[in-house]
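Why do we care about 3D structure at all? Because function follows from shape, and shape follows, mostly, from sequence. That is the central idea of this module. The next example makes it concrete: a single protein chain, its amino acid sequence, and then its structure expressed as C-alpha cells.
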Amino acid sequence: MCEGQEQEFLECERSRVFYLLMMCSGLFGAYTYVIRGGVFCNAQTGNLLLFGMALGDGEWLKAAYLLVPMAAYVLGAAVSEILPVSVKKAGLLRWDTLLIGFEILVTLFLGFVPEAAPDQISQLAVNFICSMQYNTFRQAEGIPMATTFCTNHVRQLGLCLVKWSRKKDAAFLRRFQRHAEMILMFVAGVFAGTALCRRFAGKAIWCASLLLLAVFLDLLHADLTKEKGMLGRVPHGH
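And the structure:
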C-alpha cells in the first residue's frame, strides 16, 4: 500500500485495531463458554438455532428465555446506530473511541462479578458490547471485517484463493492473509481466555480489559492529534 493510500484510512480502520478486537472476542467466547453458562455471546446464530429447537420441542419457557440475549444484541446494534450522531455533534472524541472505553468499563465490572452470580449478568453484558462492536468496526483498511466471529473470515479464505487462482492478482493473496490473521487472533484469544479462566475464573476477563485499553489509547491519541480535525469523518462501510 502506498503512502497516499495509507492516509485514506482512519485509525479506527487500521488492521492492528481489528486484530486486537478479534483477540478480545476470542477471550469473550472462552469466558462465557467456560465459566458463564456454556454459551457463546459473540453472535446470535446459536441462540436462534436453540430458539427454533425449543419451539419445535414445545419448550415455551426456554424459547422465551432465549429471546432475552437476542434482545440485548438488537439493543446493542440500535444504540450503536443512535449514539454516534450525538457524539459526532459534540466534536470531542470519535464514537469508536468512546465505545472501546465503555467496553473497558464493562469488562472491568464483569471481573468483579462473583462466580456464584447468575450467568445471565455476564451473558447479557457480552451480548450487548459485542453487538455494538460488530456494528461499529466494519472495515479494516478497505476490507470488510467482523470483529466478533469467524464465519465470514473462513468463507473468505476459500473465495480469495479461487479468485487469486483465476486472476493471479496479489491483492487476493493479501486479503487471504488478512482474513487468516483475523482467524488466528481469534483462536489466540480463545486459547488465552480458556487458560486464564481455568486459573483465575471470572477475573480472566480483565485480560480483555488490557487489550481494549491498548486499543483505546491508540484511538484516543489519534483523536487528540493527527485526526483532531476529522472527528466528523465517517469510517468506510458505514
